[in-house]
Design brief:
Length: 88
Amino acid sequence: MKHYAQSAGYAEQALIAIKVVQTYGREIKETINYNKYLDRALISERRKNRLAAFGLAFLWWGIFGFYGYAFYFGGYCRWNEFTDSEGK
């Protein structure tokens, strides 16, 4: 949000001073500066999305891993004919 706020603030500043920007022919420089701040926002957004993707991948890996282990252990107990402590 900080980077988006910086780029929006810079764009607002340029739009308020549009007569000065137009008079001195600084449109290209203002566009480059705006894009610089917008690129920073894009990079931080990509980092956030990457972290969220790894978090979800780890969560699903854990869920399916525990399911697989439960099926393995159930099959192991059934194959070796384990019973509960009362011998049923």
